[in-house]
Amino acid sequence: MAFLLESKLGFGMVCTGAVAIGVTAALWLHGAGAPPAAPAPAAAATSAWDGAIGPGRLAGPVSGGSDDAFGTTPGEPALTDGGGRLVIGLPLRQLFDSYLLKAGGGRDARAAELRAVLRRRLAQPALAQAEGLAGDYLRYLNAERELRAQMRIAPLGEGALDAAQVGRLEDWQRQRAQLREKVLGTAVAHAWFEAEDAACGSALADWRTMRAPAGSAEVDSNELQARRLHGDMLAQRREENARSCAGQLIDGLAAGAGT
Length: 259
Hints:
The protein has 259 residues and is mainly alpha-helical. The protein has 8 helices and 2 strands. Strands 1-2 form a two-stranded antiparallel sheet.
């Protein structure tokens, strides 16, 4: 059973699963005629999306045609539901990333491009909500860059991962997740990043389990049976999955490094 789960862990499938989870579990804010109120002073360090106006309730089916009266072009995912409310799912994060993380132009110019796209695609109140969240996301990217400067993670070499490197990757993933919740709020952080973080964390945990000696607390009867049946093949697959996760995390260290 353990090996069957291992064999299905490939990161291409995980990413696809993350998109499905993010969309079907997308969150919205309650629609209002005015832009969202500023967070109370006591919650100034936390995104307003987790305050009195959020995180909202589970979204219904996403509109397949247009975002309010503004209209998406063919192939663009809708960013609002049938009632014109902003949907906080992976398509919105992917839109933000396509501008804020692309190379060249400077972050201010990329942010201006994103604002222009939002104004083309969204009407109020979704527009004000999206612009507010874009500001939160920019603050997160800046804070992530500062945190990244403190980390000391070497690029992946040709050899196998070692425990020290895996430990640094786990520490980076944990600190980054805490930063996301602080700046973006729990609702957005979970909708955008929870699935991929869980898959990556599971790959690193499986790597550690593979190296745990028989008789240790990490090794149960299912693990022993998987080792007996699949041996080197299981170890290789876990190494590959962990390296895929490591590559994702190290790529994340470099993402958005420009000003």
